[in-house]
Amino acid sequence: MRTSTPARAGQYIALLCYLVFLAFPFLWLVSTAFKPPRELGSLHPTWIPKDPTLANFRQAFDEQPLLHAALNSLLAALGAAVVAVLIATPMAYVVARRRTRLAKAVTGWVVVSQAFPFVLLIIPLFLVLKNLRLINSVPGLVLVYVVWALPFALWMLAGYVRAVPPELEEAAAVDGAGRVRTLVSVTVPLLAPGIVATALFAFITAWNEFFFALVLLKTPEKQTLPVVLTHFIGAEGVADLGPLAAAAFLATLPSLVVFAFIQRRITGGMLTGAVKS
Fold first, then answer.
1. Residues 6 or more apart from 247 whose CB is under 8 A from it?
2. Which of 60, 79, 133, 182 qualifies as a cystine partner to 243, CB 3.0-4.6 A?
3. What angle is formed at CA 149 by the lines to CA 186 and CA 126, rounded to 5 degrees?
4. 192: number of CA atoms within 13 Å, CB side?
């Protein structure tokens, strides 16, 4: 049935309102980052700064080691994305292809584990990292991020594996390929869009994560960017709003750049896979 004109107009209006709702915090953050102090304290704030300035950015870099913190965040996020994908890909293949009770139990556990709060996990993870001597280290933080991202990565990749026709793997088996060779040469290339999407999820999750980094990283030189952003808030809870907005704006850019860079490849890969026979 064709949608009527008023209903279609209502859908577009609802979509526009939703986009405005999503974009408002980021646009206000950008506006605040370029405002001078007198405009930040104005009783009548404006969207566009009347006298835009880069002083907030200079002050942010002068007050806190943002570049070093960003490097720590980058290492942790990249490490978590790579390790999570390397572990989740063969696991997802087994879960999707083996229709056993164990595979169903694993899938159920993956879904249930997503409901666990951070506070419930931090104590056992802290004790494990303490025994491994990985407290206050980026590798230890990577390990925690992998543990946190792995359930969703496994569930997500299993769905992509189920979309791959089993006939392709059967044809590879007829040609003499084993399970590992079939996974590497046949299944993984078809999973490229799913692997990229999963890696993106793990990267963004680790890049933006705050709670684990706050608890596990003690020394300033090991802290990640979300933790360093809290240093712009004074002991009395008063935020240095201009530099904080500038630093937060810079912290959001990597996630936006990564997504913009690979978004077309994700969509293109999905459409290509959808028309394969």
1. 60, 64, 66, 228, 229, 232
2. 60
3. 140
4. 16
